[in-house]
Write a structure and sequence with these properties.
258 residues, alpha+beta, Deoxyribonuclease I, Chain A, six-stranded mixed β-sheet, 6 helices
């Protein structure tokens, strides 16, 4: 069972690339972020043509998350991150697929800082930790995947100096992420690549892709029940180099059957 995450940066703008990736790699589950589409505009019919069913949580022009599953319908278990009834941003969606609970997240960026956007990021991470504690207590196979907008360590960025003032690398952001790992969650890509040097994002500016100036912000965190079944991880780097690609690239784990 392959579970993948992909910040698509506009599901309509990148639809040919997204369909291409799904058809070529056939993940069982594909979690998408930044779909940038209202619910009624999500192109579900295009995915159904190639055998995928899905659920989505959209928002006009910004944010938005979706979960697609190959040959089966994801069973929604949570829409929106609990803990703040005033929060209207579409950043969290959760479902069951073939006995695995999967949460798709698009964590706030937090720039510029200091300011309300960074405060929102940190508060959102506190709420995420609370939800992940709930999932942990269920003692079920679970993956919380997506764009975390956190560079965990200096080895996860091409130049720590270049990113030092960014919200993605602030001590508060890293501490909040590390608390998730301290709760027992396994960072699948980080665990399998202990020396770092694995990027999942390359900016459109300054020739970042051509110069391989990237960093790792797309993560797959697993409960022990799922980490014990982990057989492989991967980053589909080549898709970042295709025409009209997202600035992120797909990241995935392979899980054995229960």
């Amino acid at each position: 069972m392959r579970i993948a995450t992909y910040n698509i940066n506009g599901v309509k703008a990148r639809l040919p690339r997204l369909l291409e990736w799904l058809d070529e790699t056939r993940p069982k589950v594909a979690c998408l972020q930044e779909i940038k589409s209202q619910d009624e505009g999500f192109p579900i019919a295009e995915f159904e043509k190639i055998g995928y069913q899905g659920i989505w949580h959209g928002q006009k022009s910004f944010n938005g998350v979706a979960i697609l599953a190959d040959g089966t319908a994801p069973v929604e278990t949570q829409r929106g991150l609990p803990g703040d009834p005033e929060d209207e941003q579409s950043r969290y969606l959760e479902a069951e697929v073939d006995g695995v609970r999967i949460a798709c997240i698009y964590l706030p960026n937090g720039n510029p800082l200091p300011g309300p956007k960074f405060d929102y990021k940190l508060a959102w991470m506190e709420r995420l930790r609370a939800r992940m504690k709930h999932l942990w207590d269920l003692e079920i196979p679970c993956a919380v995947v997506g764009d975390y907008n956190v560079i965990p360590e200096d080895k996860d960025v091409w130049s720590p100096k270049a990113m030092a003032s960014d919200a993605l690398m602030q001590p508060e952001s890293r501490d909040a992420y590390n608390r998730l790992l301290g709760d027992g969650w396994t960072d699948a890509i980080g665990t399998r690549n202990p020396r770092g040097g694995v990027w999942t994002y390359w900016d459109y500016q300054a020739g970042a892709w051509q110069r391989d100036h990237g960093f790792r912000i797309d993560h797959l965190l697993l409960t022990p029940e799922l980490a014990d079944r982990l057989t492989a991880v991967g980053v589909d780097k080549e898709y970042r180099g295709r025409e009209k690609a997202s600035d992120h690239t797909p990241v995935w784990v392979e899980i054995t059957a229960a």
